[in-house]
Write a structure and sequence with these properties.
Elements lengths: L14 E5 L5 E4 L1 H7 L3 H4 L10 H18 L1 E10 L5 E10 L5 E7 L1 H29 L9 H18 L4 E7 L2 H8 L1 H18 L5 E6 L2 E6 L4 H17 L9 E7 L8 H17 L5 E3 L3
Helix pairs in contact: 6-7
Bound molecules: guanosine-5'-triphosphate.
C-alpha cells in the first residue's frame, strides 16, 4: 500500500459500523450490506435495533451499553443479526466508544464457530454418557443392578475410614440362598434369575439410605451397614431373613442363610479379614441347618 493511502473499509473481511448516541447507523461497509442484503442507503440513518433480534436488543440495552459506558469498549460479544428474509445470523462484535458517545463496531459472522461449539458440546455429552455407562458396567451386576463385589470393596474403604473417624462400628452381612440349585433344577434358570432379582429388590427396599447392597456372585449377596452395633445388626439380619422366608416369588419359596460380622470400636480391621469372617459365619449357618443367622467373633 502506498504511503498515506487511505484504507478502504469495504476491502475488509469483517463488518464495520459507526453508530451515534441515538443508536442510529452513521456508516456501514459492504460486509454489513451483504449480511443484511440491503444497500448502505437502507441502513444508514436507521436505528441499529432494526437489524438485530429482539433478544439481542435487550442484551445490548441491559449489558453492552452499560459496559461501554463503564469501560469504553466491549469485546467478543455475541449478538444475532437479522439477515436475508429475516434469517438470524450469530455475529461476534467488538465495540469502542468514541467522543460524543459515537461507537465504532466491528463484527464477523460466527456461524461456523457456533456450529463447532455445539458439535463439541454434543461430543462432550456423548463422551460423558459413555463414561457413565462404562462406570455403571464396571461397578454393577448386570442381572440385579446391585453393586458388584469389586465396588463393594471400594465402598468398604470409605465406610472403614468413616468408622475410624467417628469411632463407630459397622457390620457386614453375607446372605446366601439355601438350596438355590434346586430352584434352578425345578423351575429353570430364568425362574432362578427372577428369584435373584426379587431378592435384590427386597434387600434394596429394606436397607437404610446409607447401607450398601451388593451381589457377590451366584446366589450370594452382601450388605454393608455403617454405624450399627452387633445387637441391631443381628436384629436387622433376622428381620430380613424372616421377611424373605415369608415371600413367594412366582410360587417359589426360598430361605437364606446369613453370616454376620461387626467391627469393634477403636479397632480398624482389614476388610479382607471381615469378608473372610462373614464367609465363615455364613458357612456355620449352613452347617447348623440353614435359614438362620450366625455371628462371627472378631
Ligand atoms: N438362575 C441363576 N442361577 C445362578 C446364577 N449364578 C449362580 N447360579 C446357580 O446357583 C446355584 C448355586 O448352587 P450351590 O452352590 O450348589 O448352592 P445351593 O444349591 O444354594 O446350596 P447351599 O448354598 O449349600 O444351600 C447353582 O445351581 C448355580 O448355577 C444366576 O445368575 N442365575
Amino acid at each position: 500500500m502506498k504511503k498515506n493511502a487511505v484504507p478502504n473499509l469495504n476491502d475488509f473481511f469483517s463488518g464495520h459500523l459507526i453508530v451515534n448516541k441515538a443508536r442510529k447507523i452513521l456508516y456501514c461497509n459492504n460486509y454489513i450490506c451483504d449480511l443484511s442484503d440491503q444497500s448502505d442507503k437502507s441502513l444508514i440513518d436507521n436505528p441499529l435495533s432494526k437489524f438485530v433480534t429482539k433478544a439481542s436488543n435487550i442484551f445490548i440495552d441491559s449489558y453492552v451499553y452499560p459496559l461501554l459506558m463503564h469501560q469504553s469498549c466491549a469485546q467478543e460479544i455475541q449478538i444475532t443479526w437479522i439477515g436475508k428474509n429475516g434469517e438470524t445470523i450469530p455475529v461476534v462484535v467488538n465495540i469502542k466508544l468514541g467522543s460524543e458517545d459515537i461507537s465504532y463496531w466491528s463484527l464477523y459472522v460466527c456461524e461456523n464457530r457456533d456450529k463447532l461449539h455445539s458439535e463439541l458440546l454434543k461430543a462432550n455429552e456423548k463422551l460423558e454418557k459413555q463414561s457413565q455407562e462404562l462406570f455403571r458396567l464396571a461397578t454393577t451386576d448386570p442381572l440385579t443392578g446391585l453393586l458388584n463385589r469389586r465396588e463393594l470393596q471400594v465402598q468398604a474403604q470409605k465406610v472403614t475410614h468413616q468408622a475410624a473417624r467417628n469411632l463407630s462400628t459397622f457390620a457386614l452381612l453375607f446372605i446366601d440362598i439355601d438350596f438355590f440349585k434346586r430352584v434352578n433344577d425345578t423351575y429353570g434358570h430364568p425362574a432362578g434369575d427372577k428369584v435373584l432379582i426379587c431378592l435384590a429388590n427386597i434387600l434394596t427396599q429394606e436397607r437404610r439410605v446409607t447401607d450398601i447392597v451388593a451381589r457377590m456372585g451366584g446366589e450370594e449377596f452382601a450388605l454393608l451397614l455403617p454405624n450399627i452395633d452387633e445387637e441391631n445388626a443381628y436384629k436387622l439380619a433376622e428381620r430380613l431373613r424372616k421377611k424373605i422366608e415369608k415371600q413367594t416369588i412366582d410360587h417359589i419359596k426360598i430361605t437364606v442363610s446369613i453370616g454376620l460380622v461387626v467391627t469393634r470400636k477403636n479397632t480398624q480391621t482389614n476388610f479382607d479379614i471381615l469378608l473372610e469372617l462373614a464367609d465363615q459365619a455364613l458357612y456355620e449357618s449352613k452347617e447348623w441347618g440353614r435359614n438362620r443367622t450366625h455371628v462371627a467373633q472378631l
